[in-house]
Write a structure and sequence with these properties.
Blueprint (H helix, E strand, L loop, with lengths): L2 H13 L4 H7 L6 E7 L5 E7 L7 H10 L7 H4 L5 H16 L6 E5 L4 H5 L15 E5 L5 H9 L6 E4 L4 E4 L4 E4 L14
Parallel strand pairs: 1-3, 5-7
Antiparallel strand pairs: 1-2, 3-4, 4-6, 5-6
The structure holds zinc ion.
Length: 194
Amino acid sequence: MRRPEFLLSLAGAALAGMSPMAVAAAVPAATRRVLWLRRAGYSDEIVAPFCVDGRTVYMPGYWQICWLMRDRHVAPAQGYVQVDIVEIEALWEVQQALLLHGIREPLVITSGYRTVQTNNATENAARNSMHVYAKAADMYVPGISTRDLFNACWSRAISGGMGYYDDHVHLDSATRRWWVGDLPVPEFARTSLV
Ligand SMILES: [Zn+2]
């Protein structure tokens, strides 16, 4: 199928209510960007294509990601916002790094977007946290340590702020920097996971 026909058929599929997971499966692997996420503490799990042509944002998948990363402590009218696309790309890059090492697990999001009110109520949260700007995610990956997850983040040039904690890793799309939350300062080996 030629590209324009293919994209048109995708648009049609979305309109016909075809699930984003089915769209993801239908798109050629070379051009699609699909993010596999789960929300900690809820049953939400998505395999969402946020780019299917290698260039533009595929909105049905993008909005699915924004919905999963919403602030769950407030009504959707306040908590469901546009997540920074660079943050989504950074999460995708981390997942690709893990996949290269045979780790086929979702990123489990413990915190995504936070309203100011939720951020203020979050223990140890920075006042100017990137979560408030929908540019950050806290996450873990089943079966691997937060140290290995941190290293996967570190391995990708797109990664902005990276925070290393006992039970999660913070990844945002602001300036590249890193810090240690509630763990002793680690010595990252040159031959780390990735
Ligand atoms: Zn965070």
